[in-house]
Write a structure and sequence with these properties.
The complex is a heterotetramer, with two copies of chain A and two copies of chain C.
Chain A: H1 2-12, H2 25-44, H3 46-53, H4 59-84, H5 90-98, H6 116-133, H7 142-170, H8 174-193, H9 205-210, H10 218-236, E1 246-247, E2 254-255, H11 261-271, H12 275-288, H13 290-310
Antiparallel strand pairs in A: 1-2
Helix pairs in contact in A: 2-4, 3-4, 4-7, 6-7, 6-8, 6-10, 7-8
Chain C: H1 3-23, H2 32-60, H3 66-71, H4 82-85, H5 91-112, H6 118-147, H7 150-163, H8 175-182, H9 193-206, H10 229-238, H11 240-244
Helix pairs in contact in C: 1-2, 1-8, 2-6, 5-6, 5-7, 5-9, 6-7, 6-9
The chains are: A mainly alpha, C mainly alpha.
Chain lengths: 311, 311, 250, 250
Amino acid sequence: DPQERAFQERIDAGEKIEPKEWMPDGYRKNLIRQIGQHAHSEIVGQLPEGNWITRAPTLERKAILLAKVQDEAGHGLYLYCAAETLGVSRDELFEMLHEGKMKYSSIFNYPTLTWADMGAVGWLVDGAAIMNQVPLQRTSYGPYARAMIRICKEESFHQRQGFDIMMKMANGTAAQKRMAQDALDRFWYPALMMFGPSDKDSVHSAQSMAWKIKMNTNDELRQKFVDQTVPQAEYLGLTVPDNDLKKNEETGHYDFTQPDWAEFFDVLKGNGPCNADRMAARKEAWDGGAWVREAMAAHAAKKKAAKLAAE
Amino acid sequence: DPQERAFQERIDAGEKIEPKEWMPDGYRKNLIRQIGQHAHSEIVGQLPEGNWITRAPTLERKAILLAKVQDEAGHGLYLYCAAETLGVSRDELFEMLHEGKMKYSSIFNYPTLTWADMGAVGWLVDGAAIMNQVPLQRTSYGPYARAMIRICKEESFHQRQGFDIMMKMANGTAAQKRMAQDALDRFWYPALMMFGPSDKDSVHSAQSMAWKIKMNTNDELRQKFVDQTVPQAEYLGLTVPDNDLKKNEETGHYDFTQPDWAEFFDVLKGNGPCNADRMAARKEAWDGGAWVREAMAAHAAKKKAAKLAAE
Amino acid sequence: MDPLFEFLLRQGDNTLVLGHRISEWCGKAPVLEEDIALANTALDLIGQTQMWLGYAAEVEGAGRTADDLAFLRDAWDFRNLLLLERPNGDFGHTMMRQFLFDAYQIQNLKALEASSDPRIAEIAVKSGKEATYHLDRSRDTVIALGDGTSESNARMQSALDALWPYAGEMFLADEIDQAMAADHIAPLPLEYRAPWEAAVLPALAAAALKVPQDDFAHQGGKTGRRHSEHLGHMLATMQVLQRSYPGATW
Amino acid sequence: MDPLFEFLLRQGDNTLVLGHRISEWCGKAPVLEEDIALANTALDLIGQTQMWLGYAAEVEGAGRTADDLAFLRDAWDFRNLLLLERPNGDFGHTMMRQFLFDAYQIQNLKALEASSDPRIAEIAVKSGKEATYHLDRSRDTVIALGDGTSESNARMQSALDALWPYAGEMFLADEIDQAMAADHIAPLPLEYRAPWEAAVLPALAAAALKVPQDDFAHQGGKTGRRHSEHLGHMLATMQVLQRSYPGATW
């Protein structure tokens, strides 16, 4: 197909694809899936942090966490807008989320159990997210690439804040140190899972990389994350929960234990510790807010009608 | 009316009136109002204590409070049964409560704000209730008198437990002492109001006393309560919030300041601190439990039908 | 009891308690834009709390910090309006509470900009822009939801009916307020009533809502004499870490 | 870590956490008789907690009391089953959780009556009569509500579906359980599974409920490795006085 070939050539030449331009159905569908999943992750990701906003230990920490959650909702907004340029509405995307037809990042199916988890989420989860997202600033779809540029700027700020919480905890009282280590113990492998299964088991990889909607392999990014994070853990005086973790002097990279992929697929299937709670919270918010959305639409329509009548 | 005269003579002779016997409409209506209101008070009275069951400071205190609330629900049950002997069903009484056509004791429209309030409720509120209830063991209506005998036994136990909490608080840390005094400050006048307005302003008094469904005047009981309670407060080292409180050496009674009756009538009208919250909690429990009651009735009917079919 | 300290607690506890309630919405708003706006409002209010309670702690001069005041006082030492500790209810209820307060707070801050206490004037100026934005937003939302559908109108009416008896406390004065007025630190709150009504009543009319005629006003929040049962539960959550791990830094 | 101490915490935390959840119903049950029964159940469970945690504190020998264990440990030190910290949901949900646990607990207590540790045997005997009553009641209620109306059946089915993945943790064993089995203090929990199913499945059938076929089991409660987010909130409430007023006696 010459059209597809031309399209691929534009991508290979580093051109951006813009909304009104022709694109293969598969490209569109894959992008919608990927951007939508990312948007949903921002939204669902508010919940584990919201769980500690009401219990933040100081006014400053509460303010920082509120600002972070506000940013995340904002990221959700950019991404839904980017997805809308592909011809799918935000409400349709929500519906697919609520019906279980679209996913969000599995990491948010793990609970946040102590204040140190606010540190670990920033440090590890945002850290892994950035590692995924930085290359996506160069993705082939224009609106997506531009959204990622805005998002990455804020995310790296969040990651520093998370690390700052971990510092305070790791250098704090015995109980705080214990919380910090416990958070690392619980979030380490789920963070590694955020890059997805090994590339050989990954369904969408090859085509997505050709289309530049995926820029690196899962394993590359995971390795990069481990290489970056292990020295940080050492700096914090915390122990990564992996007895086989070791710097490989030949490769210069850390050798590490793979996460339990059976658990990964269990969580994906709905059996994570919080899947049911997260979806229930989102559905309750959505259904409970239906009357608000209807009222706002009705009010806007009345205003518009009154304006027309006045003209 | 000779029937009414004969009825009054039986009462004057100290006889008990039993359910199947003739009684004047007014007697029946007044009793339903009084017993129903008392039953509702037991039920609504669970809420201010329930507010602290989840925060009780020790396992022992939690157990004691649970036992107390269980007793109160039990008292409600006895009283609804007594009311049913007068031809009104429990569901009808609930409906009247929910529609605001029947009252419950206004004291439960005051909030319980510290653990010391659990002491004050037992000491002052149950104390005042007992003062009202002990004479009612001799009331003319048999089922009511018998219910009061069972209830009074448990209530005096509750009052002692409340006083015990106050002792611990009054002899505790500075913060605990402050809580104890604060509780007395907030509950003193509302407790005095529990006996109702002065007899000269009380609507139902004269006839009710003739019928022996009211045994003492409001002012008599209030005076008795003050005389009993002031020395207890002194024993606790707490100050009754009444600058004019003084033992009258001539009468042997305490002279005291009347509660603010404007507040009393405000609360009665619905403007107490918790009226709206209490009624909302009860209605929510009732409406939210409708499916349970329906299911239980349906199951019982099915079981009965199956039993009949088997016979 | 230093009246200035008490006055500052009232300011700071209002923003703290309302900020906390709003933050309870995190991730659960009916529209994504509202998630953002609610987080933003909570953030503003917590920022204002830092200023008010920070100054309160200085005035007290007992070595306490804003965090000590926020996280280590029990309910009876809180000085917020009862209105602000009311549970969130539905989204309309939350926005009605916000609107009734915002319309008062804007008057309060405007007046405090002229306070004889320069620190108070400074905090009022810094808070004013945020408060104006909050009021614009809560008013628009109340009007939209009141005017929207018959269901939304009924919900907003029931929110107004439930919250109205808590509005009056904003305008009550006691000896603290009198001391502030005497020192030209703040006017008597009664002065805010007329402009508050001038802002509130037309909006409620535009929202097709009936203003309750009963002027009964619950009180006991700003004096601390009698809060509602809700505040203690809020504080059990809010203060859990500072209470459970005394002396830790975060 | 003393396995006996851990084992006793598991017993006591189960009754404490479930007793607390049930006590949240106070004054809000759908029928007055249920108010009484729920208060009674909570009371039994708190009484059993006093025995379990009292003995745990003795075994630990660190000078702590049952109250210290209940009110001064944070969530990660709790050893209750995840099932028991699940929020109450509606009345049917609460009773389904109760039934799934009661049917296990009766096996557990029966086995512990023969424990080589005489104190444990004694507590088990004392708790057994109450537990039998709880099971009779929760089973009857589950059957009635499952069998009742189409609405109640749907509600009970959704309760069962939601809670089923939390049942499996009751039968999992770790090194603590192995140590208990080796010392004849308690059998391996897996031994309870068959009699549990023998009690549960016929009741669910009588309740016209479909047993979920997925045997996935959430875990992390009895080991303390990963509780749910709900436990921390429960403890913030439960422990507030002991945390806020350290050293006071009540």
